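Throughout our pipeline, every protein is held as a single compact record rather than as scattered files. This encoding replaces a full spatial description with a residue-level series of whole-number codes. The remainder of this section carries one protein's record, kept here as part of the documentation.
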Amino acid sequence: VIGNESAYPLRFFTSNSEKMRLDASGNLGLGMSSGFNAVSGTETTVGIQNSNVASLYLNSTSAGGRKYGIYSASAGQLAFYDFTAATERMRLDSSGKLGIGTSNPSRDGLNVFHTTTPYVHLTNTTTGDTSSDGGYLALAGTELRLGNQEASGDLNMFVDNDSTVGIIIKSGGNVGVGTSTPSTKLSVSQV
């Protein structure tokens, strides 16, 4: 048993330099001996500090398992790397831009990149969670696709939180402009 019955930290050294510390609160520091920045002040923290890149390596050795890395990249960015595929999967930059499939998100918010067809699939507990459920936003070549994959689902585009004022494409193919109940292939209502 390796331990310490007092409130002093348990320290690990190599080459006459502290490399790891477990403090009395249960915080574990790799390359750091203090400054555990807890979010709420009550949780236990694992801290990794390095003057270049601080990273966490995860390796599942089970059948089909993968090797992943999460690391604090340059310029305050957080990156998720797939070592098995030898590619970065996601990056959050210091301004809050999130890139999936790109290491350089170019727009505010979410930036999804794929070499052929970037795709965002939206599902919930009502629609189910298979590839043929819910709705999607995709870019195929230069064509932007917005779709509802539900058999009885409509596609509704509106403004000012008023679903009756806008454009609706019903699951049967009728289109309504200014009405949510089009009775013909194209129904236009004056507002």
In short: The chain has no helices and 17 strands. The chain has a mean pLDDT of 86. The radius of gyration is 25 Å. The first strand starts at residue 10 and ends at 14.
